[in-house]
UniProtKB/TrEMBL annotation:
One of its GO terms (molecular function) is UDP-N-acetylmuramoylalanine-D-glutamate ligase activity. Its main location: cytoplasm. Pfam families: Mur_ligase_C (PF02875), Mur_ligase_M (PF08245), MurD-like_N (PF21799). This is UDP-N-acetylmuramoylalanine--D-glutamate ligase. One of its GO terms (cellular component) is cytoplasm. It comes from Paenibacillus etheri. The gene is murD. Belongs to the MurCDEF family.
């Protein structure tokens, strides 16, 4: 696409009235474009519409009219969650009209170098961690995008003295063309969002667009333990900074001694940045990290690699690793009740995220899981259920599938919750059932392994209701 200033007098259609849609509409309107915003929600469900209309921006609610996309439209900017199969998107593609996401527009506006962070799991934690590390190093970060300020808004305010730290989904990256972060990080790849992408190839290709326009002076921070990440190496033009929990690297950020299957978890491990054969820095003891779970060690390694690539002194990072207490809905401590400890991991919308959460605890777990059915059989949960979970409380569209896996795993305490009332009432009952099953010293963990949209508007709503139910026990 052209620079946003170059759309003066041209027709632009924004699909979706979420925060990013509202902000990108304002940006292009301010630059003289003739902007139409369209959302399939009814007008009374779109409170943002009034603000846009007061600025002179046309808002069409309640569906996608036939004449919305036509040959006179120069650009379509879609909400990342809108599928490419949606009629207005299909129409734009048929007419050869550019279709992008807000990320592409923000990149064109932004004077600050960008750090893009993506992956199936751990994005928000790592992004927040990086922001805190760069803040501690006096590097003026702006954390924006899916967390914090809408990206277009932040991009307009950023200067060359800032670093723009951005969490990016595969949905957002798929709709980019020239986007080029100074530092790009791929945390991991798991089988997820296939209902949107249609195949793992499209999902991986979308993630890989993070690196597509990078050059030799840029940096790609890659998970050396993930085979999908390693497969991208031959196509990389950027300098690669790897991180690993299982391999002592000649260059990069790693754990020593490494995490190897069968190795004693009680070994004293350190996070190390090795710049060369004779130059390395011990960043921190793994035990000092403020978040539980081996997977959070991986997030810590990635955050350190990104901060170092941006120019932060490695010796400053250990304190941030120790003081960080995590992000809401991501293995978030909630409360202790009757000797059991409750954690909210509502952001776990796929099996891999739930597996990572379960392996974070050595104590017995009463697991609350279930949600939107995207076609998985959840058999990948079988080994960890049989090894760590004492009881399952299942809910949502996938409750029968999860019950089946729990039975195969040999669990004796399995409860399926569906009282026919509201979604909130079902989750509240699940918390009460889990509480009745939990004994002193147990963990009660909400980690659904599924998206929330069968019952809730978002994983955030699901997590908030869970926390309220716990506090009401």
């Amino acid at each position: 696409m052209k620079h946003p200033d170059m759309y003066r007098g041209e027709e632009v259609v924004v699909l979706g009235l979420a925060k990013s849609g509202v902000q990108v509409a304002k940006v292009l309107h301010d630059r003289g474009a003739v902007v139409t915003v369209n959302d399939k929600k009814e007008r009374d469900q779109s409170p943002e519409a009034s603000e846009l209309e007061s600025l002179g921006i046309c808002v069409i609610s309640g569906g996608h009219p036939d004449g919305l996309i036509h040959e006179g439209v120069s650009l379509v900017i879609k909400n990342p969650g809108i599928p490419y199969s949606a009629p207005p998107v299909q129409k734009a593609l048929e007419l050869g009209i550019e279709v992008v996401t807000e990320v592409e527009v923000a990149y064109r506006l932004c004077a600050a170098p960008m750090i893009g962070i993506t992956g199936s799991n751990g994005k928000t934690t790592t992004t927040t961690w990086v922001g805190q590390m760069l803040e501690a190093a006096g590097m003026n970060p702006i954390v924006a995008g899916n967390i914090g300020t809408p990206l277009c808004e932040a991009a307009q305010e950023a200067t060359e003295d800032n670093w723009m730290v951005v969490e990016l989904s595969s949905f957002q990256l798929k709709g980019t063309e020239t986007f080029r972060p100074k530092i790009g990080c791929l945390l991991n790849i798991a089988e997820t969002h296939l209902d949107y992408h249609g195949s793992m190839k499209d999902y991986v290709d979308s993630k890989a667009k993070l690196f597509a326009n990078q050059v030799a002076t840029d940096t790609a921070v890659l998970n050396w333990d993930d085979p999908f990440c390693r497969e991208l190496v031959p196509y990389m033009k950027a300098a690669i900074l790897p991180f690993s929990m299982s391999e002592e690297l000649t260059y990069g950020v790693f754990v020593s001694p490494s995490y190897i299957t069968g190795q004693d978890d009680d070994l004293k491990r350190r996070i190390i940045y090795r710049e060369s054969a004779d130059q390395e820095t011990i960043i921190a003891d793994v035990d000092s990290i403020g978040l539980p779970g081996r997977f959070n060690v991986g997030n810590a390694l990635a955050a350190c690699g990104i901060a170092i690539a941006a120019g932060a002194d490695p010796s400053l990072l250990g304190e941030v690793l120790a003081s960080f207490r995590g992000v809401e809905h991501r293995l978030e401590y909630v409360a202790d009740k009757a000797g059991a400890t409750y954690y909210n991991n509502s952001k776990a919308t796929n099996s891999k995220a739930t597996i990572m959460a379960l392996t974070s605890f050595q104590r017995p777990v009463v697991l609350i899981a279930g949600g939107l059915d995207r076609g998985s059989d959840y058999l990948e949960l079988l080994p960890v259920l049989s090894g760590r979970v004492k009881a399952l409380v299942a809910l949502g569209e996938t409750k029968d599938k999860l019950t089946n896996v729990a039975q195969l795993a040999g669990l004796k305490q399995i409860i399926s919750v569906d009282n026919g009332e509201s979604a909130a009432a079902v989750l509240e009952q699940a918390v009460q059932e889990a509480s009745a099953l939990a004994e002193e010293g147990d963990i009660v963990l909400l980690s659904p392994a599924c998206a929330s949209w069968d019952m809730f508007t978002s994983y955030e709503e699901r997590g908030r209701i869970f926390k309220e139910a716990v506090h009401n026990l």
